[in-house]
């Protein structure tokens, strides 16, 4: 099984040729270059592999033409789907920063060392991330 990691999502369609608008963490524009392979879909396990055929940077927005999307109708149908890369293509976080998936399962403590619980999941929303904590399981 191939490990894929979410790096963004499709925010909408652009033009009639099937370009898609991308949303992704700031500073990761270099990930989207002509010829690079990414996967798109509602989940990493079912995502379809696509080659980036063209890239347009416009008003701090990245628009890409993908090999698996031929027109605007197909691009609109992909709105909200995730963008995934394989493990070897993941850019490492800056020193002192962590991927959320590396933190899930870790204990959460107060500065005094009192254990509050374990990070079970993180849900992304427009208003900010929601961090779900549960009963203690393990220490990181």
CATH homologous superfamily descriptor of the largest domain: RimM
| Global morphology | elongated
Give the ordered list of helices and strands.
Answer: EEEEEHEHEEE
- N-C termini distance: 26 Å
**How do the strands of the widest beta sheet line up side by side?**
1-2-5-4-3-6
CATH topology of the largest domain: Elongation Factor Tu (Ef-tu), domain 3
Question: What is the CATH class name of the largest domain?
Answer: Mainly Beta
Main sheet summary:
6 strands, antiparallel, barrel
The radius of gyration over CA amounts to 18 Å
Query: Which regions have little confidence, pLDDT < 50, spanning 5+ residues?
Result: none
The tally of domains stands at: 2
Q: What structural class do helix, strand and pairing data support? A: mainly beta
Helix content: under 10%
Percentage of residues in DSSP E strands: 35-45%
The total strand number stands at: 9
Number of helices: 2
Name of the CATH architecture of the largest domain: Beta Barrel
What's the mean pLDDT score? Answer: 86
Structure description:
- Strand 7 and strand 8 form a beta hairpin.
- The protein is mainly β.
- The protein has 2 helices and 9 strands, in the order βββββαβαβββ.
- The strands form 2 sheets. A 6-stranded antiparallel barrel has the order 1-2-5-4-3-6. The protein has a 3-stranded antiparallel sheet with strand order 7-8-9.
- The protein is elongated, with a radius of gyration of 18 Å.
- The mean pLDDT is 86.
- It has 2 domains: 86 residues, Elongation Factor Tu (Ef-tu), domain 3; 35 residues, no CATH class.
